[in-house]
Amino acid sequence: MHILGIMGSPRIQGNTDLLMDEALNGAQGAGAVVEKITVNSLSIAPCAEYYGCLKDGKCIIHDDMDLMYDKLLTADRIIIASPMFFYGISAQLKGLIDRCQALWARKYILKQEPPDTGRKGAFIAVGATRGEKLFDGSILTVRFFFRCLGVAYADELLIRGVDKKGEIKDHPTALVDAFSLGEKLVEEQ
């Protein structure tokens, strides 16, 4: 089983990154092969609405997204992780998701459904505030992104009230919960 971790935070070794690492450690411990992509290290232009993808399902912009499409379509499990910026996912992660308009075109315009292989995904998010609706918009974004990929939204780990770099280490259960999320993704068939 191959698990793709997409880390959407620009802050390396920050709270989101630490949670992603623990989730991938849990998955690896349960027998999965894991791969972590840090979106901030990629060169991904934003979607420019050229609509070339409506013809053949391929984006006409060529950059690091060329490598991501296959990874997104072949991973058995996907974990998306992001800090909350103004009650939304990071711009880096949103740019990657927006560039999947090409995959949306394949599925909904060209009727090329991704294979139904029981693929699953999870969302990890960390926010400084404790707002009741802190994660609502981001959950919708990730759910619809997963739907486009043929991935079932299977789990989430949402942490409020954590902001300073590394502060997640002081949270009583967050790292253990992230490890368990990774394990569960592998164990659930």
Question: Which sheet architecture does the biggest sheet show?
Answer: 5 strands, parallel
CATH fold-type name: Rossmann fold
Q: In percent terms, what proportion of residues is strand?
A: 15-25%
Kindly provide the radius of gyration, computed on alpha-carbon positions and rounded to a whole number of angstroms.
16 Å
Average predicted local confidence, pLDDT: 96
Number of strands: 5
Tally of discrete structural domains: 1
- Helix % is 25-40%
- Poorly predicted ranges: none
Task: Label the CATH architecture.
Answer: 3-Layer(aba) Sandwich
Helix-strand pattern, N to C? Answer: EHEHHEHHEHEH
Return the structural class.
Answer: alpha/beta
Helix count from the secondary structure assignment: 7
- Report the principal-axis shape: globular
CATH class: Alpha Beta
Question: Gap between N and C termini, in Å?
Answer: 11 Å
Read across the widest sheet, the strand sequence of neighbours is 2-1-3-4-5
Would you kindly provide a written description of the structure presented here, covering whatever features stand out?
The protein has helices spanning 15-29, 53-56, 65-74, 91-98, 101-109, 136-149, 174-187; strands at 2-7, 33-38, 77-83, 120-127, 152-160. It is α/β, with parallel strands linked by helices and 189 residues long. The chain has a single domain, classed as Flavodoxin domain (Rossmann fold, 3-Layer(aba) Sandwich), CATH 3.40.50. Helix 1 (15-29) packs parallel to helix 7. The longest helix has 15 residues, at 15-29. It is globular.
